[in-house]
C-alpha cells in the first residue's frame, strides 16, 4: 500500500501516526494493498482556495477528499481492485481550533479527520441522516480500533 504524507503546512505533525492510521483504515475497509493514497496537510490560505474552488464555500475547512478511481470498500471475501484511492487534504490550523472546542489534542483531531476523509474517498457520505449515522459509526469504530492497535504496538 502506498500512502504518501506531504506536510505543506507550518505545523509539526506526527506524519508516521497519520500513515499508520491510514494503513489501519484501508486494511479494515479491505482496500487492495496496491492502492495509493495521499494525505496532504496545508495551511489555511491553501485550504481556503481549495474550499472555494471545489465546494464553492468561503473560508478554510478542516478536511477535503478528492477521490480518483472511485474504489469502494471490500468485504470478508473480496478486496477492492488496486488503484488510486485519491487525496485527503487536511488543515491543521482548523483542526487545532476544533480540537480545543472538543477538549482533545490537535493530533487526535487530525486522526479523526483523516479517517473521515478516507471514508469519503471510499464513497461514504453524511448528507442524509441514515448515511450520517452509518459513516460516523464506522469512523468511530476505526478510531477505536486504531487506538487499541496503537496501545498494543506501544507495549510490544
Protein architecture, described:
The chain is of the alpha/beta class. The protein has a single domain, classed as Collagenase (Catalytic Domain) (3-Layer(aba) Sandwich). Helices cover 51% and strands 15% of the residues. The protein contains five helices and four strands. Strands 1-2-4-3 form a four-stranded mixed β-sheet, sandwiched between helices. α1 packs parallel to α4 (106-121) and α4 (106-121) crosses α5. The radius of gyration is 15 Å and the shape is globular.
Task: Please summarize what this structure is.
The protein has 156 residues and is an alpha/beta fold. Helix content is 51%, strand content 15%. It is built from five helices and four strands; from the N terminus they run E-H-E-H-E-E-H-H-H.
Amino acid at each position: 500500500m502506498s500512502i504518501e504524507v506531504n506536510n505543506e503546512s507550518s505545523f509539526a505533525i506526527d506524519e508516521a501516526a497519520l500513515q499508520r492510521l491510514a494503513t489501519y483504515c484501508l486494511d479494515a475497509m479491505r482496500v487492495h494493498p496496491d492502492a495509493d493514497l495521499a494525505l496532504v496537510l496545508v495551511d489555511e490560505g491553501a485550504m481556503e482556495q481549495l474550499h472555494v474552488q471545489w465546494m464553492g464555500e468561503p473560508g478554510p475547512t478542516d478536511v477535503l477528499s478528492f477521490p480518483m478511481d472511485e474504489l469502494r470498500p471490500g468485504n470478508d471475501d473480496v478486496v477492492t481492485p488496486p488503484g488510486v484511492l485519491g487525496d485527503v487534504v487536511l488543515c491543521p490550523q482548523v483542526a487545532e481550533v476544533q480540537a480545543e472546542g472538543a477538549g482533545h489534542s490537535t493530533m487526535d483531531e487530525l486522526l479523526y479527520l483523516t479517517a473521515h476523509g478516507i471514508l469519503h474517498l471510499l464513497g461514504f457520505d453524511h448528507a442524509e441522516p441514515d448515511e450520517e449515522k452509518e459513516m460516523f459509526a464506522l469512523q468511530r469504530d476505526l478510531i477505536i480500533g486504531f487506538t487499541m492497535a496503537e496501545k498494543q504496538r506501544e507495549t510490544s
